[in-house]
Amino acid sequence: MWCFIALVMERAVQKCFAIPLLGELDRDEVNKKDGYSKATRIVYQAIRIAENMNCPCYLNLDSYFAVGPVFLLAAGVYSVAARVPWVHIITHAKKNAVAYLDPEPAPPGKRGKKKKYGEKLTLQNLFADRASEFTETTCCVYGNTEVVKILCLDLFWKPIMGKIRFVLAITSRGPIVLMCSDLALSAVQILELYCRRASIESMFWVLKNLIGGLAYHFWSKLVEKKSRRPKKNKDSHSPAQKIPVAAVEDKLRAIEGFVNVSAILVGILQILALQFPEQIWKDNQHWLRTFSNKVPSEYIVKGVLTQTILRNLHTINAHAIYTLIRSRQSQPCDFQQLKRAA
Q1: CA 340 to CA 342: how far, in whole Å?
Q2: Which residue has the higher pLDDT, 24 or 182?
Q3: Mean pLDDT to the nearest integer, 88-95
Q4: Range list of H helices, 245-292
Q5: Helix 38-53 vs helix 68-76: angle between axes, to the nearest 10 degrees?
Q6: Residue 114, CA distances (Å) to 81, 135, 156 in order
Q7: Cα–Cα separations (whole angstroms), residue 200 to 4, 22, 125, 142, 203
Q8: What is the pLDDT of residues 132-154, one digit of tens each?
Q9: Which residue from 35, 44, 126, 188 lies 20 to 30 Å from 153 (Cα-Cα)?
C-alpha cells in the first residue's frame, strides 16, 4: 500500500493544485520498528514535512484516520516558537461516532468524584434531533458555491479525553460529519478545507495516467514465477522460498525512487502552468470543448512541452544522439498550417 502526502495550493485565480510531497510504500516492519501504526505514520511524516518547511498546516484525512492516536500524535508535537501544533487534523467522522456534552455542575456540598462527561450524543442522530439549530450559509463545496446548512459543536471525545470541533453539514451531496482538532477554525473553513481533497484525487490521476508514475516493473529474478491460474494444493507441501533481504530492499528503493521522480515531474508541470500560463495557452494545439481556467492543467502543459521538444529536435545542430532520434521519429505535424489550409 502506498502512502502519499500532497500539499494543496490555491492561487489568486482560484486554481487549486495538489503538489505531491512524499510517496513511500507502507511496510509493516518499518512501522513496528518506528513505533507507528498505519494510521499514525502518515501524521508523523506530515509533522516532519511541516517542521522542515517551518509552516504549520492542516492535514486532510478520510474516516479511516478518525481515531484517537492520530489526534493525540498531532497535538503532542508542538512548534517551539509558537507553541502550537505543527499539524491540525481535519477528517471525516465514522458513521458510529459518538461524543459527549459538558458535564452538569455538581450541586454545592456534594461529595465524590466529579463527572468528566455529560450527555452522550450519537452524531448521525443530530441531523434529526437538532434540525432547528442548523444555520444556512454560503460555502464553496467541491468548487461550486452553494447554500449549506451547518451546525458546529465542540464536544468531548473519549479517545483523546478532550474536546474536538464537530461540524455537521447538509450539502447538495448529502449530510456529512467532520472532525477538527483546531477549535478556533470556523465551521465554513473546515468544510471548505475538507472539500479541497478533490484536487488530491486529480493529482493521483495525473501521476498514474498522464505521467505513468505507478507503471513500475522492477521484478526480481530471485522470486519464482507464479501461475495466474494455480492448481489447488499444488504448492502446499513445497518449502518456503528464501529471498535475500538486500535484494528485496533494492527493489523497494527502486520502486519508491521511480514514483518520487514521477511526483517531481508532476510538480514541474504545475510550476510551469503557474509561471507561464499565457505562453502555454498560446502554444497549445489541443482542441478544448470548454475553457475552464486561466491556468492550464498538467495535461495541457505536457502536450505543449511534447510538441516543443519534437519541433526543436529538427533545429538543433547535428549530434550523434540527435541524429539517431531524428532518424526514428516522424515529422511533427504543424497544426497551425493545417488550420490555415482548412
Answers
A1: 5
A2: 182
A3: 92
A4: 245-275, 277-283
A5: 20
A6: 36, 34, 15
A7: 10, 13, 30, 12, 5
A8: 999 999 988 887 888 999 999 99
A9: 44
C-alpha angle with apex 142: 192 to 88, nearest 5 degrees? 35
Amino acid letter, 148: V
Whether pLDDT at 12 is above 50? no
DSSP 8-state symbol, 208: I
Instruction: Estimate the crossing angle of helix 245-275 against helix 298-312, to 10 degrees.
Output: 90
Q: Report the alpha-carbon distance of residue 281 to residue 332 in Å, rounded.
A: 19
Statement: residue 221 has pLDDT above 50: yes
pLDDT of residue 246: 77
DSSP one-letter code for 305? H
Beta bridge partners of 3: 24
Q: Angle between the 187-195 and 197-205 helix axes, to the nearest 10 degrees?
A: 10
3-state helix vs strand vs coil in the chain, percent to 5: 40, 20, 40
Distances from the Cα of 293 to the Cαs of 106, 277, 290, 296, in angstroms?
A: 59, 10, 9, 7
- Distance between CA 166 and CA 170 in Å, rounded? 13
The DSSP line for 226-257 is --SSPPTTSSSSSPPPP--HHHHHHHHHHHHH
Q: What is the mean pLDDT of residues 234-250?
A: 66
Cell readout for 192 is 471548505
pTM for the full model?
0.75
